[in-house]
Amino acid sequence: MGKQLEQGDIDALFAAAGANAAAQAASEGDAAPPEQYNFSRAGQISNEQMRAISTVNDLFARNLMHTLGAWLRTPLRIKLVAGEQLPFKEFLERLSIHTFVCSLRLEPLGAVGLLELELAISSSVIDVLLGGVGKAWPVRELTDIEEAILTSVMQLVVQELNLAWQAVGLEFVFEKRETEAAVARMMTPGERTLCVSFEARMPEAQGVINLCLPAVVLNAILRRLIAEGDRPRRRSKEAHMRMRDLLGQVKVGTLLQFPQMRLRASDIAALVPGMVLRLPLPKTSAAELRVGNLQLASAYPVRTGEHRGAQFEDEAMSSHYIGQSLSRPADNLAMSVN
């Protein structure tokens, strides 16, 4: 038969077990306690991530300033003014009564963001695109034509967003303009968002461009953004082609310069307006074609249509002409003094 424990024996066993547990806890007192997860900080963006975001958005602001300014053909200044985390309900409270808000689909995250353009600056943009000088008019609801114009402007803004964020694989897809009621249903009121504000200035008006993105879904992208920031930058194929196109539109000073020659000082001193000074050079002498004060090639002065030009001495380039203000071919090259 098994031994039956008395109440005193049972109390002694529980006391011994309690003493062992206390001793084990004391021996582990120096160990770090397990970290507790705070669900209220879900979606919180770190300071390092905010710095990476500011770098990308500053690049976006500069590119948009040049692209949109060239499209509008008017002075335009765009700069990053703020980037902060706030609940979605606070973003809604900042929206103006009359504003232009469109929805953006974030791929491949499958999330939705918002892009706002204040009508204070929109009116000036519309006036320029309709042939005006960019005057601002009182804030009011947009007509169908004005809304179509602003839609094309916002699509241009989204293109620049894609160029700035493409290094981390984030794509913005423009969807449509949203009503105030539809905007309020995009996210839950307490959802944490990243709100980035840009100031846009034109000669007659100024306003704000706001970008609102859900912070929770950006965490993976932001980690990749920080990792990319530590690597050497590589230009994308689109950026490379865009750079080539922009450089192709640059104008540089071009000159067809005669080779060195010797002239008598008395001939130069005798020059008067209307006199032609004959140069000691045969017409077969090639001149130096200089671009930006650097010698590009040897060329001959020619005429192409109503323009004067330079024909390259190299046979492979002989069919190309560069317009210059040069004298027509003659038996001898001459310089006219006016």
From TrEMBL:
Keywords in alphabetical order: Bacterial flagellum, Cell membrane, Cell projection, Chemotaxis, Cilium, Flagellar rotation, Flagellum, Membrane
Membrane topology qualifier: Peripheral membrane protein
Known role: FliM is one of three proteins (FliG, FliN, FliM) that forms the rotor-mounted switch complex (C ring), located at the base of the basal body. This complex interacts with the CheY and CheZ chemotaxis proteins, in addition to contacting components of the motor that determine the direction of flagellar rotation.
Annotated Flagellar motor switch protein FliN-like C-terminal domain residues: 247-314
Family annotation (SUPFAM superfamilies): CheC-like, Surface presentation of antigens (SPOA)
One GO BP: bacterial-type flagellum-dependent swarming motility
A single MF term (Gene Ontology): cytoskeletal motor activity
A Pfam match: FliM
Family that this chain belongs to: Belongs to the FliM family.
UniProt protein name: Flagellar motor switch protein FliM
InterPro entries: CheC-like_sf (IPR028976), Flag_FliM (IPR001689), FliN-like_C (IPR001543), SpoA-like_sf (IPR036429)
CC per GO annotation: bacterial-type flagellum basal body; plasma membrane
Location relative to the cell: Bacterial flagellum basal body; Cell membrane
Species whose genome carries this gene: Edaphobacter dinghuensis
Gene3D superfamilies documented for this protein: CheC-like
